[in-house]
Specification:
Structural class: alpha/beta
Number of helices: 26
Largest sheet: 7 strands, mixed
Radius of gyration: 42 Å
Strand content: 5-15%
Helix content: 40-55%
Strand order of the largest sheet: 2-3-4-1-5-6-7
Low-confidence stretches: 36-44, 319-334, 403-410
């Protein structure tokens, strides 16, 4: 493929001293760079007068590897005018036109502007050819560096002002460049960059036209079959998190409650709560309930904080019934609920709203403020109570955000620190000989099966150690991690499948759907070569998905097998598909059987044509 460039005009400075030589712009560009990006590519540059068009000198160079650039350079407008018919043919065949002039030769510029510009406009009236106007040289009447500002008024005398060059480029729809000297920067990078841009555009246009011509040709034989896109795989939906709602439901049911809030003055029961939730949200309750702060992931309280906590609450021993000093109480929970007396009347009045805020994750401060404003009318009392709630939850003074937030889905939160921790534990699971501590309140809030197990007439309700069967220790630990943190991230398809079975066993649908998404993600990330060589049986995975009621996963796996028909049809377990499953796969297979048949016929036709060509 070649590109024709026509260069018109003389860019040499008429004010050069005798003996000084100045190369032409195009020759300088082709000699310096010629669009070569690799040193291994050779630039083939040659120059010779054109025999057919004597007014032009022809340059040829190979640029961009294998693109041939042919330059017809006419340095004299007189020669261009004298051989008008030949010049017109050359300009008509041009892909790019470069008009050059010296910035210090104003008479020659005026002649170009008044005489030759209308001629070029008439020639290009029927076609769109990119034009570059290059003003070469530094203005001789400037004391400082050359000014390129269009509004500059320093161009006087025999120099061509920038504004006139811009006006000429506007008339021709051209790109205007000022090249102060023909060095590597101006000739190679500045001018060369613009010229190479137009060369690339020209090559793209020619390639497009060539492709259109190829498409318009009628093929001699049958067209190759068209492969349709595979059907879109069904999406698997996952429910939104119900983490906060689960704990609010636990607060309302009072199941597994081990804390009773009472009014110190009236002595009546105000609410029931759970130590594990209170201690995960409040450093004050860590102190009151005798839990070591470091064990629960909290820092130790200062003496002033201890005093402030004692002004809000007092804790009664569950056996003797007498108030005790929270700094000297035992750290192991008793069998009977611990009584916490609320000393502050405002907190006693709004205890229900405060507990709901704590159980919802301690993140909806605006909702807490609205509910308190409905209960209290005095602005002073409202601000006082909100300040006590901030202290209770460990907020910084004046802040409405915890650092860190409680109940977030991250193991670094206090509730996450209580995962697999002996702190406040009241049940231990024995899985394959490994003991895993847990908290009945958290399990009952997050899992309905365990809530029924700990609340009914089952042996687990009164047992401290609960054996777990049919689940591996790693799988059950991942299950407990989801219960505590609302997140899980199985590392493989086998781990996600085992966790899916455990989630179905304990009726946790959201975890089951998360495992389905993990399995799908792992399968989609496997390349075709790995799918063909892996020992993982997708057909067996489909069996497990159907057996454990993973409806979304089983539907997706059927489409996945159909979309990768050429891979799975070669595996031995493909024959284990049920009759209805195989019918579905055959119906939705990709590529389709019709395409495979058409491809075989097309290949046979091509092979016959090759044999004929060999004989000829």
């Amino acid at each position: 493929m070649s590109v024709r460039i026509v260069a018109l005009g003389n860019e040499k400075d008429r004010l050069l001293e005798d003996g000084q030589h100045q190369s032409s712009l195009l020759w300088t560009y082709l000699g310096r760079s010629a669009g070569v990006h690799d040193r291994r590519d050779n630039v083939l540059l040659s120059s010779a007068p054109h025999t057919t068009f004597p007014a032009f000198t022809e340059y040829q160079a190979c640029v961009f590897g294998d693109v041939r650039v042919v330059v017809h350079d006419c340095p004299s407008w007189d020669l261009f005018d004298n051989d008008w018919y030949s010049s017109r043919n050359v300009v008509g065949q041009a892909d790019i036109i470069v008009i050059k002039y010296s910035i210090n030769d104003k008479p020659a510029f005026q002649e170009v502007k008044e005489t030759y510009t209308p001629m070029i406009k008439r020639l290009l009236n029927q076609c769109t050819v990119p034009i570059i106007i290059a003003a070469v040289g530094a203005r001789q009447n400037d004391e400082g560096p050359p000014c390129t500002c269009p509004l500059c008024t320093s161009d006087k005398g025999g120099c061509v002002p920038t504004c006139e060059g811009l006006q000429l480029s506007k008339e021709l729809g051209a790109t205007y460049l000022e090249l102060h000297t023909l060095n590597d920067f101006y000739a190679g990078k500045y001018f060369g960059g613009v010229l190479e841009y137009f060369i690339v555009q020209c090559l793209n246009q020619k390639s497009s036209e060539k492709n259109k011509k190829k498409k318009s040709r009628k093929p001699n034989g049958p067209n190759p079959p068209r492969l349709e896109q595979p059907a879109k795989l069904p999406t698997v939906k996952t429910e939104d998190s119900s983490y906060s709602c689960d704990f609010l439901r636990l607060l309302g049911s009072s199941q597994c409650a081990d804390v009773t809030f009472c009014s110190e003055g009236l002595g009546g029961e105000l609410a029931r709560a759970h130590k594990v939730v209170l201690c995960s949200a409040s450093p004050v309750f860590l102190l009151l309930l005798g839990v070591e702060a470091g064990a629960a992931g909290e820092g130790s309280c200062s003496p002033s904080a201890v005093k402030a906590a004692l002004n809000l609450f007092s804790v009664s021993d569950s056996i003797t019934g007498f108030p005790t000093d929270p700094t000297t109480r035992g750290r192991h929970p008793g069998d009977l609920p611990t009584q916490v007396f609320v000393k502050d009347p405002l907190l006693c009045l709004c205890l229900s709203e405060t507990l709901q805020f704590v159980y919802s994750g301690a993140s909806q401060w605006n909702e807490l403020e609205k509910s308190i404003r409905k209960r209290l009318k005095s602005v002073h009392e409202i601000e006082e109570l909100l300040g006590k709630v901030r202290f209770l939850l460990g907020y910084e003074k004046g802040s409405t955000e915890q650092a860190p937030l409680r109940h977030s889905t991250c193991n670094s939160t206090p509730l996450g620190h209580l995962f697999n921790s002996p702190v406040l534990t009241d049940v231990i699971f024995n899985v394959q000989g490994v003991l895993m501590p847990a908290h009945r309140a958290v399990l009952a809030a997050r899992c309905e099966v365990m809530a029924a197990m700990f609340n009914g007439n089952y042996a687990e309700a009164n047992s401290c150690v609960v054996p777990i069967h049919s689940v591996s220790k790693d799988t059950f630990l991942s299950f407990l991690e989801y219960i505590y943190t609302d997140t899980c991230c199985p590392a493989s398809v086998s781990q996600a499948t085992a966790l899916l079975v455990c989630a179905e066993m304990y009726q946790v649908p959201r975890l089951q759907h998360i495992c389905e998404v993990c399995i799908i993600t792992h399968l989609q990330c496997m390349p075709s070569r790995e799918l063909a060589s892996t020992n993982l049986s997708v057909v067996n995975l489909l069996r497990k998905a159907k057996f454990h009621n993973a409806v979304q996963l089983s539907a997706w796996l059927l489409h996945f097998i159909a979309s990768n028909y050429l891979i799975f049809s070669q595996k031995p377990d493909f024959l284990d598909l049920a009759e209805d499953e195989r019918d579905f796969v055959e119906k939705h297979r990709w590529p389709s059987s019709r395409y495979v048949q058409e491809l075989a016929e097309f290949r046979q036709h091509v092979q016959v044509r090759r044999l004929r060509c060999t004989v000829m």
